[in-house]
Amino acid sequence: MAVIPVDIAGRPYEVHVGAGLLPQLVEHCRGRLRKRAVPIVTDANVHTAWGEVVETALRADGHEPHWRILPPGEQTKSWDELAATVNWLLALEVERGDHVIALGGGVIGDLTGFCAAILKRGCHFIQIPTTLLAQVDSSVGGKTAINTPAGKNLVGAFHQPSLVLADLAVLETLPQRELLSGYAEVVKYGLLGDADFFDWCAANGAAMLAGDAALREYAVAHSVAAKARVVAEDEFERTGARALLNLGHTFGHALEAETGFSNTLLHGEAVALGMVLAARYSARKELMPPASAERVAEHVSAMGLPASLVGLHLGCDGKALATHMLHDKKMDAGTLPFVLMRGIGQAFLDRQVDMADIAAFLDEELSRAG
Ligand SMILES: NC(=O)c1ccc[n+]([C@@H]2O[C@H](COP(=O)([O-])OP(=O)(O)OC[C@H]3O[C@@H](n4cnc5c(N)ncnc54)[C@H](O)[C@@H]3O)[C@@H](O)[C@H]2O)c1
Ligand SMILES: O=C(O)C(=O)C[C@@H](O)[C@H](O)[C@H](O)COP(=O)(O)O
Ligand SMILES: [Zn+2]
C-alpha cells in the first residue's frame, strides 16, 4: 500500500492507495469513527457492488452503518439532493466532530463533501473513492460542489477530507466507459506539468486500463502525489498553481453544460476533448508545436476518448459554447484565464485570451473534417 501525505497547513491528511483496503476500513480510519452510528452516502450502483463489504467491515467493529443511497449520475449534484442529504444528516444528529463517509465516484464525493462543509458550519468527512476518476482526482484536494442550471460546480466550498481510502479492488466492477473517463484526468497530470508521465501514459495507459494491477497502483499513486503537491501549494486556487488542474475543463465544462450534464458526455470525456481543444488552440496561437498538439489528440483518440467536436452533433455554434464559459470560476474582472500549453508538460495560465477568437476557433473545430 502507498500512503501519500497531503500537506495542507494545519490540516494534513493521508491518501491510502492499495488493493483490498475496504475490509480493513475501520483500521485505516484509526479512531475517527467515534460513535456506533456511521453515516455513509453512496449511490445505488456502488451500494449494489460494494455495500455489503463496507457493511460487514463496519459491523465487525461494532458500528451500525446508516446508508443514504442516491441515484447514480451527474444530476445528483443538485440543490435538491444537497438539501435532502443535509436534512438526513441532521436527523441522524451528526455532530461537528463526527465523520461522514462518501463512498462513490466524484458525484458522491463532491455532494457529500459539500454537505460536510455546511453541516453545522463544518463536520469531518472521509472519502472512499470508487471510480478511477475519484481516486486520481476528485477525492483529493477538497473541492466540493453541486451544479446549477447556470453551470458546473457553481455552488460549493473548499473542505478537505480527513482521510482518503483508494481501494484499487473496487475498480473491478467499474464499467469500462467510466474507467476510460477517469483516465482523462490521469493524462491531465502528464500534460500539465510532467512530460515523462505523459510518455508513461502513452506506453502503459492501455495495459493499465486493461487491468494490470501494478500499473494501476502506479497511475493512481503518481496522480495523487501530483495533485497533493499542487493543492499543498495553492489550496484555494489563488496563486494560479491550482488553476492548472483545470486544463481542459474550461472547454469541458462548457460541453457538459451544453449537453445538459447528461450521459452524452461524462466529465472525463469532456475533459479529454477539452484538453485536445486546449492543445489545438495553443498550436493555433503558435504557443505549442502543432506536432505536439496532434500527439495529444492521437493519444486521446487511440485510447477511445473523444478527440473531436464533430461526432457530438451538438447543434450549437462556437459562440454558444463560449457563452457557457463566462460562468467559469476562473473569470476575473471580465476576462477568463485559459489553461494553455507551450508543449506537453508545460501548461500555463493565459490571461489574454479573446473570447471572440475562442468562439471562432470552436466554429472551425465544429466543422473540422475527421
Ligand atoms: N472535486 C474535484 O476536485 C473533482 C475532480 C474531478 C471531477 N470532479 C467531479 O466528479 C464527477 C465525476 O465523477 P465520476 O467520474 O467518478 O462519476 P460518478 O460519480 O458519476 O460515477 C460514475 C458511475 O460509476 C458508477 N460507479 C462508481 N463506482 C463504481 C464501482 N466501483 N463499481 C461500479 N459502478 C461504480 C456510479 O454509480 C456512476 O454511475 C463530476 O461531477 C466532476 O465534476 C470533481
Ligand atoms: O482540484 C482541482 O482544482 C481541479 O480543478 C480538478 C478538476 O479535475 C475538477 O473537475 C474540478 O472540480 C474542476 O474545478 P472547478 O473549480 O472548475 O469546478
Ligand atoms: Zn475534472
TrEMBL record:
Keyword S-adenosyl-L-methionine appears in the UniProt entry: no
Domain 3-dehydroquinate synthase C-terminal, chain residue ranges per copy: 182-331
Coiled coil: none
Pfam families linked: DHQ_synthase, DHQS_C
Transport listed as a keyword: no
Record-listed Zn(2+) binding positions: 185, 249, 267
Subcellular location: Cytoplasm
Domain of life: Bacteria
Record domain 3-dehydroquinate synthase N-terminal: where: 69-179
Record's cofactor remark: Binds 1 divalent metal cation per subunit. Can use either Co(2+) or Zn(2+).
Binding site for NAD(+): 106-110, 130-131, 143, 152
Assigned protein family: Belongs to the sugar phosphate cyclases superfamily. Dehydroquinate synthase family.
Protein name: 3-dehydroquinate synthase
Species the sequence originates in: Novosphingobium kalidii
